[in-house]
Every structure is written in structure tokens, then in C-alpha cells.
Design goal:
The chain is an alpha/beta fold. It is built from eleven helices and eight strands. It has an eight-stranded parallel β-barrel with strand order 1-2-3-4-5-6-7-8, surrounded by eight helices. The C terminus is likely disordered.
Length: about 250
């Protein structure tokens, strides 16, 4: 992905929230992707490696080529799913997970490697990496959120904008994460976000398809700066093209 990529709405799964209305993770994912979500991150901090592998594989099979599927934290699960032939694009890593250089080396040049980054020091480290090591930065939290109780101090819109400006030198697009609501979509886009990551706003909704569609519409209809649209990562661009063709 390039710094000008349009990532759109990025769903992060939460099994507890998805079960609140008896829908389940697969039901949430299917509805969200049908509504135009472009990336799905499978996240379950409490699941065993075997259970997370089964869930990730099922999500990938349900999504097909309509969205990119990545695994939160677990490089081993991403590798195992890909080895078994499931369409898992890659992994999203935190600062305490395995180094992104290792993930890139093991997954290969065509995979997706995301990284959480929320301080200038994190961005300086990314800037020292070879270009192409990291495809996407998850920047947050924007607001305090119960889905990640150990989160760092909230950045707010202005704090996100500062990190996004610093990230321009890395050439890696930033997705805003953490307590993102519909009211945040436009200001975060103006602050330099390439997309917005949503957990509870979709997973906890009684109708996740309607909720996802609202986020997608808010992102699509936001004021544009210079008309930049999704360029860069060919896997993501193919997903966007296919979605537009189906619309």
C-alpha cells in the first residue's frame, strides 16, 4: 500500500460482542463485507491457536476474494491458514509481537503485514525498515475503548493527525482505531486517515450489515482532499474494484 491508499472501513472481530445478538463472528463478517467492508482482521485474544486457526479459516472461506483477511498478532496462525490453502492475506502485529521483518520474511513479499504504531518513536523505527516491510499502520486509540482495556492514552483527532503527518515520510498509510464512531469518520479522514477500524460499532450492532453500511457510506461520502483514491496494494485494489463492479 502507498501513503495515498484508500483503505475504507476495516472490521476487527470480537466474538463476545458478535454473540450478543446471536449473530456470531461469521454472521457479522458476512454482513459487513456485503455492506462494503474491505479488510477483516480476525482478533480473539483468548482463543487457543487451534481455535483461532479454525475461525480464521472459516472467515477467509466465507469472505472469498471480496475482502482481505488478516490475523491479529498470531503470525503462526496466519502461516498455518495460508499453508492449508485459505485466502488469508497476512497478519497485523503489535509492538510487543514478533518483529515485522520476521513476518515479512516468512509470509513473503505478496502478503499483508500491518503494524500498530502510536508514537513518534514507532514511526522512526518503521522509517528505518526497508520499504515494503509494512503495508499498513494501525494508529490509536482515538478514544478510550473497552475492547482493548490495556490501550495507551487516547490520541483524539488532533493526536491522530500528528501521528499521520509523521507517518507520511514512511510512505505507509494509517488507519485510525479505537472507539471510532460514525461522527469520527469525517474528521479522521480530514486528519489523514486512510481508513477507519471498527470493532463494537459493527460487532455489537443488532444489524451489523446496516451498521457497516453506515460506516461505509460515511467514509465514501466524506469530503476528499485532492481526490486521492486507493492505489498501491494490488490485493486491496482488486477487492475495491470487485466491490464497485458488484454495486
Amino acid at each position: 500500500m502507498s501513503a495515498g491508499s484508500d483503505v475504507g472501513v476495516y472490521l476487527i472481530t470480537d466474538a463476545t460482542l458478535a454473540d450478543r445478538h446471536g449473530i456470531g463472528v461469521l454472521g457479522v463478517v458476512r454482513a459487513a463485507v456485503q455492506a462494503g467492508v474491505r479488510i477483516v482482521q480476525v482478533r480473539d485474544k483468548r482463543a487457543s491457536a487451534r481455535d483461532l486457526l479454525a475461525l480464521t479459516s472459516a472467515v477467509a472461506d466465507a469472505v472469498g476474494d471480496r475482502a482481505m483477511v488478516v490475523v491479529d498478532d498470531r503470525l503462526d496462525v496466519a502461516l498455518a491458514a495460508r499453508h492449508a490453502g485459505h485466502a488469508v492475506a497476512g497478519v497485523h502485529l503489535g509492538q510487543s509481537d514478533l518483529p515485522v521483518e520476521v513476518a515479512r520474511a516468512l509470509l513473503g513479499p505478496d502478503a499483508h503485514v500491518g503494524l500498530t504504531a502510536n508514537t513518534p518513536a514507532h514511526l522512526e523505527a518503521v522509517a528505518r525498515l526497508p520499504r515494503g516491510t509494512v503495508d499498513l499502520l494501525g494508529v490509536g486509540v482515538v478514544h478510550p475503548t473497552t475492547t482493548k482495556p490495556d490501550h495507551p492514552p487516547a490520541l483524539g483527532h488532533e493526536g491522530f493527525a500528528r501521528i499521520a503527518r509523521l507517518a507520511r515520510d514512511t510512505g505507509v498509510p494509517c488507519v485510525a482505531i479505537g472507539g471510532v464512531t460514525l461522527d469520527d469518520v469525517v474528521p479522521l479522514g480530514a486528519a489523514g486517515a486512510a481508513g477507519v477500524a471498527v470493532v463494537s460499532g459493527i460487532c455489537a450492532a443488532a444489524d451489523p450489515g446496516v451498521a457497516a453500511a453506515a460506516y461505509v457510506a460515511a467514509w465514501t461520502d466524506r469530503p476528499r482532499d485532492g481526490g486521492r483514491t486507493g492505489q498501491g496494494d494490488p490485493r486491496l485494489q482488486a477487492v475495491v474494484t470487485d466491490h464497485e463492479a458488484d454495486a
